[in-house]
Design a protein that fits this description.
2 copies of one chain form a homodimer. The first copy, chain A, is α/β, with parallel strands linked by helices. In chain A, about 40% of the residues lie in helices and about 20% in strands. In chain A, strand 3 (about 35-40) and strand 4 (about 45-55) form a beta hairpin. Chains A, B: GO terms for molecular function: kinase activity.
Chain lengths: ~300, ~300
């Protein structure tokens, strides 16, 4: 996971002991998912005073492991910050996790957290808050999966995020799967080959059965590993790859328009693939693309700092 | 599984004992897959003298069960025919099974068969031979999965059959999955609703999360159960359904053309969905559509009868 420079939270390298009686405003941000979790602790002045990384934290597939890894990472961040446990116990925390789909998932994690106040949400909220630094604008988050969001006046609307089988249009898994479907059609002569399809087929020893075997077992992340082939080929003008990236860009534009996006609003393309769609957006959208102001972890910290605003 | 009238093999209702010394030309046809298996026994005059149905026979997922169920069905058909075991032991048999993907799968089944001569193949060959009664023509087999084939002068070419994840275009699983992807986009306002998408969404209590839950767990067969909604809506002129059926028909036509199909050749649309594409084919293809002359089981018997031709 890329760690973007914090937009509001400054990393402080001196780690002194902070006494618990000073700590009513200690903030904890947590970002997690199937590949790992990250914890950042900030003081009342929004200095980041401790961070830690931990193991996978997917509340859907491995809930107990998620609990264990999050707790371990919190403790590592506490030690990194030089805080006593009492400081953690009085902290406010915001937790964004991939795979939180309902209150039951959120509760399962929330009930073991050691904080005075904590909120557990799907990581879409922390991603958007981080990318826009809590301001107005739109986000198309395109990694292994995908979703599109727009924030306006403190309210955020979301579209997408329906997973590999029925959604996640424009995502890495979507590109990878679409590529392999196309390569099989080309191998059979039903569709014409391009450089991309020929080179992809060669990776499987020119044997569509090998693609079939891969495809039947592959996880979305494994399909997503093929997406860079599509991006690179599209940038070189490969017609098949270009059509796939345009299809993905069309989805992003349709979703943004559905959310009421206006052409003067900032647009963040996040995730490993997001920025690569800039080239394939119509100019009025492409010119609004800006770098994300922060990561999902930054977003979690910002949301934690706002918990006090409306207790 | 539909059982079409045999084109060459006549069912004989009298079941006398056939002595083993007369039985050098006893023929056995077997058709099987994940939902069950069927066995037919014919005498030298191509009268069907015994049949039986058995349990699931998928050599990929449940190989030992496939062996057991096929052997039990053979024995039931033997008893139905009033044959002694020695007659079976000297028979020639052709076995078409869904899920045979390589020689290892075929060998695993073949080595337990009690026949003098036996061949185990994927059921595509028996389906095509049955539908065309061993003659020239093309077959688009569209059920839960799909494939397209063309026979000319005793040679058959095949396209498709690459499974739910990367292929099976036009199939029931493909239609069902595409429908649900579309319904979620409509529910989000990204694409316009049609009657079909509105009614499908209502089946899930107007909750795309329910579709997400279904879609994440559904088997291809479960997706395929939605295909009749698409067919019915397309026949009523629903624009979304019509577009989906046209996409499927386009795939069928492209595959047929790739196989060298000529507009004067017979075209069989088999499987539960095949015939429903007739309406959505261009006229030059639609007018060539004919009823299949027989089932995969008939095809297996015909192929068994030909085994003697080239020993």
């Amino acid at each position: 996971m890329a760690y973007f420079p914090a937009f509001q939270f400054r990393k402080r390298y001196y780690k002194g002991i902070i006494m618990s009686d000073q700590n009513s405003t200690i903030l904890v941000g947590i970002d997690g998912g199937g590949t790992g979790c990250r914890v950042a602790i900030a003081d009342a002045d929004r200095n980041i005073i401790g961070t830690a990384k931990g193991g996978p934290a997917n509340p859907t597939y491995t809930p107990q492991q998620a609990r264990d890894n999050i707790l371990a990472a919190i403790d590592a961040a506490r030690l990194d910050a030089g805080l006593e446990q009492t400081a953690i116990n009085s902290a406010r925390a915001y937790v964004g996790l991939a795979g939180i789909r309902n209150d039951t998932d959120a509760e399962f994690i929330a009930e073991i957290l050691p904080f005075a106040q904590a909120r557990v949400v799907e990581d879409r909220a922390t991603t958007v808050t981080g990318a826009l630094a809590g301001g107005d604008g739109a986000v198309a988050a395109i990694g292994t999966g995908s979703f599109v969001a727009r924030s306006k006046g403190g309210k955020t609307g979301y579209l997408g995020g329906w997973g590999f089988r029925l959604g996640d249009q424009a995502s890495g898994a979507w590109l990878g799967r679409n590529l392999l479907e196309r390569v099989i059609l080309c191998a059979e002569g039903i569709e014409p080959h391009s450089d991309l399809t020929r080179e992809t087929l060669a990776r499987y020893d020119d044997d569509p059965h090998a693609i079939y075997e891969f495809g039947n077992a592959a996880t979305p992340a494994e399909f997503g590993k093929l997406a860079p082939l599509v991006v690179d080929a599209a940038n070189k003008g490969d017609p098949t790859a270009t059509a796939m990236m345009r299809d993905g860009a069309d989805y992003i534009v349709k979703a943004l328009n559905t959310l009421g996006y206006r052409p003067d609003e900032p647009l963040c393309l996040t995730g490993g693939l997001g920025p690569h769609y800039t080239n394939f957006l119509q100019a009025s959208f492409a010119r609004q693309v800006m770098m994300p102001k922060g990561s999902a972890l930054d977003g979690a910290l910002l949301l934690a700092s706002r918990m006090g605003d409306a207790p």
